[in-house]
Amino acid sequence: MHNETDSAAPPERAFIEAIALKRLVRAVYNGAAMLLAPHQLFQRHGAIFVSALNTARTWRSDEAPRLGQFKLDGLSEVRVADESFEPLPDYTGEPAREGDEPIFSIAA
Predict the structure, then answer these.
(1) For a tag on the chain, would you pick the N or C end, based on fewer CB atoms within 10 A?
(2) Residue 7: is its pLDDT beyond 70?
(3) Residues with Cβ within 8 Å of residue 102, at least 6 apart in sequence
(4) Looking at residue 62, what is its pLDDT?
(5) What pLDDT does 108 receive?
């Protein structure tokens, strides 16, 4: 049975659910399908963003995986997936930039 969250739900709600349950999120960003591990939902200059690990990205051997910031307005087809994830071990819960206003975050 397919249990992914209905795409009709607002993206903010889907990301809050995914962060609370530590579930991956399937979405399309700039035309590319992504599987994101969301760590924090925040507001920057009136827009809502998510700090998330793009699990599909290939990291160089000398580079540690890190969170990217994705503007929710740029994401479409947002669905909470059945797969869970482990938060990055160095995640502190601090905003990415000074002035960012956290909305919801994985407990650090």
Answers:
(1) N
(2) no
(3) 40, 41, 42, 93, 95
(4) 81
(5) 64
